[in-house]
Fold this protein.
Amino acid sequence: MNVPSFHWWRTVFFLIPAIGAYTIVLGTVSLASSLFDRTGRFAHGCARLWSRLILVTTGVRVRVEGLEVLEPGKTYIFVSNHQSIYDIPVVFWWLPYQLRIIAKESLGSFPFLGWHLRRTGHLLVDRRNPDRAGILRRWRDLVVNGLSLIIFPEGTRSADGRVGRFKAGSFMLAIEAGLPIVPLSIVGTRRVMRKGRLTVEPGHVTLAIHPPIDAGARAERPSIDDARTLAADVHAIISSRVEAIERARETNRG
């Protein structure tokens, strides 16, 4: 008979209740604020505090590289690899921008979290039948309000830490929106909470921010080939840095 580890007990009897409480309390405040603040700016403040509390409670320490390449107050499309559900708290807390995510429609059904996403301007997309024109229209509305977007173009979390293939659809929208794309490399969240496992452990995470790419300059009338080329370029930037950070960590462990 296998005895559960200390971190399993800590996750089940401490972290899950604590994070559940943060979600209910701040989710309620977020939903209430949406009655008078339809831009979602105050609600995003709740999301950032929620993220900070999760990281501190879990024991996740984050090293940020490259924040100086960004202009304060500018609107960006952030594109990141996806290692863990802990990527969201890391990005929301450490990027000082009004962020909205593009996520699958099913997330909107989750109590508090999903309700927050629906009420505060996040883009929930039916991946089986995406309304590209509608997404672009809502995307442009966010841009007008000075809101930045965060995209995880792998579509799912990586099981082994390697950066999977990027889907081109989001990059077509990025080109059409004409906004600068900022690649993000996240390393370490996979070890905090591995895909398919309940156990959560403290850990060290690196968030590497790369210089913006002018996607709008790629083509006046973008084609799917332009989107695929951009996706491949961004993938190369992100995966190269992820691999370099992983190699450095392995060397330090040795």
